[in-house]
């Protein structure tokens, strides 16, 4: 589905369903928020990456303006809705201070693979246990989709941006599984190294080999 969106580039990746609190202080983005509220419209957050506005981003809805400050700055609560790709980018939307763009909104397939999900869950538990983050594992994994754990995998911005571009849950699951299969052994090896370092200097009760 094609539409024109006000755009608010940021150096982050926002996933569908994610809630994001923003402090709005620049005049152009104060105008953007007021326009969206007045016209009951959404806006887009494309990821600003490698010194450029990326072509992929997330459509956002404004849930509420929590506070308006005396100088016009605002604290707002937003939530991610859909992924889009920018077809045409305008540094300034017609007659406005903020950027805008013609975008194509993705049809997103959330059909998951249960076996892959179980493998991800097992690896995440091992990862969080190694890092001492057992509570995070418990909080996250009652029932989850890829987007729910996207910021809790140790991905950098470029990797999260790649994940954002995948249009099916199965593709996202495969990418996450591959990442965890690479990361978990490294983290576990680091933990073993830490234990070996701690043991240095301690008196050891060792049994000599028989030869």
Brief overview:
It contains six helices and six strands.
Describe the protein in words.
This protein has about 210 residues and is α+β, with helices and mostly antiparallel strands. Strands 1, 2, 3, 4, 5 and 6 form a 6-stranded antiparallel β-sheet that branches. Helix 2 packs antiparallel against helix 3. About 5% of the residues have low confidence.
Poorly predicted regions are 201-206
CATH superfamily label of the largest domain: LON domain-like
- Largest sheet, if any? 6 strands, antiparallel
Oligomer: single chain
**DSSP strand tally:** 6
Number of domains: 2
Backbone structural class: alpha+beta
Helix content: 25-40%
The fold-level CATH name of the largest domain is Archaeosine Trna-guanine Transglycosylase, Chain: A, domain 4
Computed CA radius of gyration, to the nearest angstrom: 22 Å
Beta-strand content estimate: 25-35%
CATH class of the largest domain: Mainly Beta
SSE succession? EEHEEEEHHHHH
Overall shape: it is: elongated
Mean pLDDT: 90
CATH architecture of the largest domain: Roll
Number of helices: 6
- CA(first)-CA(last) distance: 76 Å
